[in-house]
Amino acid sequence: MANMSEADIPQTPSESAWIRFDRNELAGSFGDIGTDLPLIVAMIPAAGLNGATVFIVFGLLQILTGILYGVPMPMQPLKAMAVLVITQKIAGNVLFGAGMAIAVIMLVLSISGALSWLARAIPRCAVRGVQFGLGLSLASLALKDYVPSLGTSGYVLAAVCFVIVVVLWGNRRVPAALLVILLGLVYAAMATVDWSTLRIASSLSLPAIEVPTWDAIWTGLILLALPQIPLSLSNSVIATEQTLHDLFPQRAIGIKKIGVTYAVANFFASLLGGIPVCHGCGGLAGHYGFGARTGGSVIIYGTMYLALGLLLGDTVDVLVAAYPRPVLGVILLFEAVMLLVLVRDMAGDKTQFTIVVLVGAIAFGVKQGFLVGLLTGTAIWYFWKWRESASQSSAENLES
Predict the structure, then answer these.
(1) Number of C-alpha atoms within 13 angstroms, CB side, residue 170?
(2) Structural domains in the chain (count)
(3) Of the candidates 52, 12, 7, 42, the residue with the CA atom closest to the CA atom of residue 28
(4) In a domain, 111, yes or no
(5) Domain interval for residue 88
(6) pTM over cut 0.90
(7) Which regions span the lipid bilayer (predicted)?
(8) β-strand partners of 77
(9) 83, 95 Cβ separation under 8 angstroms
């Protein structure tokens, strides 16, 4: 897969650093919060989870990922699983079983070489379509659900945040995300936080190891893991590898490593009472878009969750639920924009760009659309290549 040019992706002299802590890494650390926080907060009561444990495990996984990769590639909740848990109130033991099941599946795919084969076989235009579809989905979520959530005051708050991001976009001296997050904190402190419900944890709450039962693993596989796999293969693994090549062409991070860390993270999350997680091209784009260039942003992001879980215990979900969703919506919207602009390198080829738009539309509008779109785009690409080869052969035969 070809990489984007230097003109497409801005570079800085210090981007060879593995881990750095500065204002830009801090700003970039909030680039995926719009996706993560609402899902985590909604999953905790729906599945009867321990809020402190969820935050501690999620934070630890972020920190370890930042150290391991050295680029701003965070962990995210598994979205298909999260939606099913939230809407169907699936119990926590089944969720942990699903995490174990999908960990085993992804590990087998990675070690066997199946993931590497898929990465070679699937054309880049189909992967771009998945990125495009995810960008449309995130933008829709931001504009339809998040921004309108607080009524008139929410619209005003979102508008101010939007202007801040536009004016300061790309400014590495005054990162936009820091001002936006600070504004959200001020609004929450004044309008939405119920301070009487918050309390500092009386004792240190650390996750305990508990192995899911075979029944929980089997039920989790059927109810949660199988619906999640198509989205994970397309967005969490294949599209993430492409986005890494786009944003960090100097880093050789293969799809096998992405699959293995996905599997290992879910193995430990299921044992420790955490929610199942994945990598994702949206989170990577979000961190990068708001200024992050190293694993430092992911470490900062994880430390925030870890500290909240340790300090506030079971009341942590009460605090984060009070954060204004319109602010998260603006962050989510610009995360979507970062994904949408990646399709620019397809604009010069009519056939490939058509496949990108088609795959994106399917991913956005069809149930299990990420898998359906990926398969459809790949099939069209190979059919077109076959037609092109057949036409060329016919022309050569006529000439001879």
Answers:
(1) 6
(2) 1
(3) 12
(4) yes
(5) 13-343
(6) no
(7) 47-70, 90-118, 149-169, 176-196, 216-239, 260-286, 298-320, 327-343, 355-384
(8) 277
(9) no
